[in-house]
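user: Here is a favour to ask of a fellow structure person. I have my own habits and do not want them to colour yours. Could you put it straight underneath, so I can go through it closely?

assistant:
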Amino acid sequence: MLTLVVLGRKGYAALDQRGILHRLEDRQNTIIGVVFIFLAGIIWLGF
């Protein structure tokens, strides 16, 4: 568990340094919408 937390924090820090997190925050509603549509499609198809 500790290993996963450390790796997650390092990954978050790497994304933060490159400015990727700021771009994701700007598009979060679109990303969430696409994920919901994808999940609804999976449920509708019965997987």
User: Anything to note?
Assistant: Residues 11 and 17 are 10 Å apart (CA to CA). Residues 2-45 form one domain. The chain has a mean pLDDT of 92.
